[in-house]
């Protein structure tokens, strides 16, 4: 999801990059926590308390919150945006409250239009006396059951034919080796189409440090952003830490999800 700030700076919430509107390459990239903090204020433009910010950005995502951490990342955001000519992207309000600077113009992404609903034409109701006759006539009962059974049989046959025609073979996920100085690292081709390899390795190193994991011979990692939901700006991630042997390259794996970091 992209936000246009002051009509000249584009912030991409999926990878935390900041790009000038007239440039093709990002000028800088926010850390995961700094990006989460900025996203919180983009979605909460009114005055908020510091406790609410700490709860939503840190505590709710399993991170250790403190006023010193908040001050550090506020300073980081202000310094980064000052580089682009935007002073005090987040301002301090009296009594320990904060707010996205009201003088900063944020253009939110346009929501996708909802599909139009097609209302089928309503059939003209039959005269009341005709309905009464159909219900009261035994021959009509038999004809109705015959037509209903025939219709169900035709529908079942169509469903079988449709499943045979449209059935497709499930394909395995394609994994590509990524150059890393210490780890054997694999990424899905879908992942590499949505993010640069440099950003991918940088985020992998951050997660590896967060989990306090080390690279060892005979082990490999699979790292993926998956759907990258933007709750508080923190994307949902997946990492598998796998042992290898000659018969199975993924014989045993510890899997880590989101920010709970529990295998």
Automatic annotation (TrEMBL):
Gene Ontology BP terms: phosphorelay signal transduction system; regulation of DNA-templated transcription
Keywords per UniProt: DNA-binding, Membrane, Transmembrane, Transmembrane helix
GO molecular function, one term: DNA binding
TM helices/strands, residue ranges: 145-165
Pfam (any one): Trans_reg_C
SUPFAM superfamilies: C-terminal effector domain of the bipartite response regulators
OmpR/PhoB-type domain mapped to chain residues: 27-100
Name of the featured protein: Winged helix family transcriptional regulator
Organism (species): Jejubacter calystegiae
Native organism taxonomy: Bacteria, Pseudomonadati, Pseudomonadota, Gammaproteobacteria, Enterobacterales
């Amino acid at each position: 999801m992209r936000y246009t700030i002051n009509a000249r700076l584009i912030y991409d919430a999926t990878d935390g990059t900041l790009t000038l509107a007239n440039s093709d390459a990002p000028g800088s990239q926010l850390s995961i926590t700094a990006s989460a903090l900025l996203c919180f204020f983009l979605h909460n433009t009114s005055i908020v308390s510091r406790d609410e910010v700490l709860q939503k950005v840190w505590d709710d995502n399993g991170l250790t919150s403190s006023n010193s951490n908040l001050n550090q990342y506020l300073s980081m955001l202000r310094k980064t945006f000052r580089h682009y000519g935007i002073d005090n992207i987040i301002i301090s309000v009296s009594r320990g409250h904060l707010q996205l600077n009201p003088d900063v113009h944020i253009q939110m992404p346009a929501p996708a239009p909802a599909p139009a609903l097609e209302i089928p034409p309503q059939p003209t109701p039959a005269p009341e006396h005709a309905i009464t006759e159909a219900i009261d006539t035994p021959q009509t009962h038999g004809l109705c059951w015959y037509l209903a059974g025939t219709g169900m049989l035709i529908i079942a046959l169509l469903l079988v034919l449709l499943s045979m025609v449209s059935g497709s073979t499930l394909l395995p996920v394609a994994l590509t080796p990524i150059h890393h100085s210490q780890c054997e690292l694999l990424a899905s081709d879908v992942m590499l189409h949505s993010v640069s390899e440099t950003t991918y390795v940088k985020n992998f190193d951050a997660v590896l440090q967060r989990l306090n994991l080390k690279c060892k011979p005979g082990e490999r990692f699979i790292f993926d952003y998956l759907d990258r939901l933007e709750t508080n700006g923190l994307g949902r991630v997946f990492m598998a830490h796998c042992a290898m042997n000659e018969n199975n390259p993924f014989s045993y794996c510890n899997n880590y999800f989101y920010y709970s970091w529990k295998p």
